Amino acid sequence: METPDARRVIAERGTRETPHGHLDVVVEAELSWGNRIDHDWRIVDPHLMDWTLDLAKPFHVDLLRQSFRFPPGVALGVYPSSSGGFGPRMSLATPDFSSIIAPLPRGWSGEYGRIEL
């Protein structure tokens, strides 16, 4: 017998009025777990309407897994340093160009990879 999955479902996309709104519950959860916002939601690329928010601390990956169900289009990944001056980081990104960026936890490799949610 299957037990119901009580985790909150995260939508794959936001709305026209709030493109990043579907990720606000993830940000609220991270804040409740002790994280902070370094840079609030802003458009990084006006051509793509790429919305990004930066967290001060690494994602609480285990708590995210326990609390939310993410659709296949929403991915958490590790990205290496870039020529734009960004160090290695984690990014929770959606197909509609909304993303939450966080630093890597201590000891994690800065090599590109996907983190299962």
How would you describe the overall organization of this protein?
- It is a single chain.
- With 117 residues, this protein is α/β, with parallel strands linked by helices.
- The protein has one domain (20-115).
- The chain is 14% helix and 32% strand.
- The chain is built from two helices and eight strands; from the N terminus they run E-H-E-E-H-E-E-E-E-E.
- The chain has helices spanning 24-32, 61-67, and strands spanning 8-9, 37-45, 50-55, 68-69, 75-79, 89-93, 98-103, 113-115.
- The strands form two sheets. The chain has a six-stranded mixed sheet, with no helix packed on it. It has a two-stranded parallel sheet with strand order 1-4.
- The longest helix has 9 residues, at 24-32.
- It is globular, with a radius of gyration of 14 Å.
- The two termini are 24 Å apart.
- The mean pLDDT is 91.
Radius of gyration from CA coordinates: 14 Å
Distance between the termini: 24 Å
Label the overall shape.
globular
Beta content comes to: 25-35%
The H/E string reads EHEEHEEEEE
**Count of individual domains:** 1
Secondary structure topology:
Layout: E1 8-9, H1 24-32, E2 37-45, E3 50-55, H2 61-67, E4 68-69, E5 75-79, E6 89-93, E7 98-103, E8 113-115
Features:
single chain, 117 residues, alpha/beta, six-stranded mixed beta sheet, two-stranded parallel ribbon, 32% strand, globular
Provide a compact summary of the structure:
By secondary structure, this protein is an alpha/beta fold.
